[in-house]
Amino acid sequence: MKNKNYWLINRTGLLTSFKVRQTIINVLRLSFIFIIFIAPFEAVKALPSYARQTQLSCTACHTSFPELNSFGRMFKANGYTLTTASTINDQSGDTLKPKTRLNLLNNLPLSVMVQSSFTSIAKDVVGQQNNSGQFPQQLSMFFAGQITPHIGSFIQMTYADGSFGMDNADIRYANTTNFGSNSLLYGLTLNNNPTSQDLWNTSPAWRFPYASAATAPSPAKSALIESLGGQVIGVGAYGLFNDLVFAEFTTYRSAQIGSHNPPDTTNTNVVKGFIPYWRLALQHQWGLNYLELGTSGIASTQYLTGISGALDKFVDIGVDLQYERSLPFGSLSLHSSFVNENEVRDLSAETNYNFQSFKVDGNLFFKNGTGGTIGYFNNTGSADIANFPNGNNKPNSSGFIFQIEYLPWYNTKFAAQYVAYQKFDGSSTNYDGMGRNAGNNNTIYLLAWLCF
Thinking of the domain 11-89+107-451, which architecture would CATH place it in? Predict the structure, then answer.
């Protein structure tokens, strides 16, 4: 994701810069020693099964997991099928033109992820214990790697919050062809979460923060495109022309995990018909720089309850930007996304609602395994008395996210995160009508990541 960028520094500035960096590094190391002693372990989405398959280090595809670099994006677009590991082969057919009937990895492409955490919020929630630990917060097994020379997978089965089920899943077919001097990478995807198949870390499924406190209060409203994981199944086609223009179209249908299937009168938010999802992006890499500009969207019509009656209609349209630059001592990246959602809710009469979600973050990672990220989020929307009965009745929430991290090994990460709210569910003060302020939900979140 980040290509190598070099700063021009004079000799006097070099010594000063070196001392400052060493001071920062020492502070970060002390912080993470503290984290190791008070927090359990957490895990990664940079999968060792891919490393075993390709015989490449995690850094071949990632800057700091799970953020992908250019090679990692191409590995995903090509269906997770690049391999240098030994395989079981069988060829049959005409001896002059034998056809490969089997090309199977000698070992199953399995990985295990363990995630645990410690969470502390600024003020106790009534009736809920503060300063809580989770071990595990999440325990996942992945089947992730080549299935055939053109078909690969990222399938995640997860235990969390006392239940076990399928998390993100993406099975792909991919191939390449040429149009004269131009190349075309094309493929098909079967997945259960719009944007889980996306290549960039601006999409809802893969953007910062990559992990967050499950036991802390969080804003009640999000865009539909951010919240369909595990609720749908989709089949789509995509293409990357000349390593420049990416386009995808996928259509989704309800497939709710943990609810009746096929849906019946007990289900909620069942899709009427299909959900079209589209993605278009331009990317360019020059020197030590990389830039992506993209847009995406969905349109969904859902039943409020059951499989008939009142409908809820959504149209989400988003734009995003990603910039990367490699540095002599590490890498820099910037991500930004904006989603505008229009909702028409059928109750006694049609009611229109509008919601906007803006996010931006910048991170700096050093080659010695330390790094930091600063993010900002701002959700705004029209009044929605049914879901926000207090304050100004709006879903407005905003704040900053600060994170520092340390990777002693490429498949292990320790991190400390702080979320500072400016507004929460409509207001900075008394947002719930019971005297609770936005700052009362400020959160300290300590993590450790382990994947093997």
Answer: Beta Barrel (2.40)
